[in-house]
Recover the amino acids of this structure.
């Protein structure tokens, strides 16, 4: 009888410790995903973050930005940018699969580019990638109001 009581007490302690570990966790993934790396408002804060990404890329330092832009019809365009410190290039993944007017063959594209910079025009600063593998022209991604 004493062995059962000790076993039950041990099981209760283990269950309590296990549950306390679960209760301290949140469903907020803020620790895993730094929200400053996600551009969705295209305001001054997002522009400053993109400016930081461009400067770090020019210095051939690692950085990461995920930009979500809206189409005129309300679809989402996702730009996944990584500045790679290993090869000093910018890796771009474009995901148009959430835009219903994009064909599925063109929904996802990937490029590796040598340079990234700002392009000014019409009261806006746009992000431009150049010297991309497999492309003859530069890629104009998205812009920020001045």
């Amino acid at each position: 009888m004493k062995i059962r009581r000790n076993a039950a007490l041990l099981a209760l302690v283990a269950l309590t410790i296990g549950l306390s570990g679960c209760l301290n966790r949140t469903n907020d993934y803020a620790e895993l995903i730094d929200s400053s790396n996600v551009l969705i408002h295209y305001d001054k804060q997002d522009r400053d973050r993109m400016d930081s990404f461009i400067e770090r890329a020019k210095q051939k330092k690692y950085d990461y930005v995920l930009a979500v832009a809206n189409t005129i019809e309300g679809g989402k365009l996702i730009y996944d940018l990584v500045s790679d410190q290993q090869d000093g290039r910018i890796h771009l993944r474009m995901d148009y699969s959430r835009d219903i007017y994009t064909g599925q063959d063109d929904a996802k594209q990937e490029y590796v580019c040598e340079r990234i910079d700002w392009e000014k025009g019409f009261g806006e600063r746009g992000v431009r990638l150049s010297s991309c593998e497999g492309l003859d022209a530069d890629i104009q991604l998205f812009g920020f109001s001045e």
User: Anything to note?
Assistant: The longest strand covers residues 108-121.
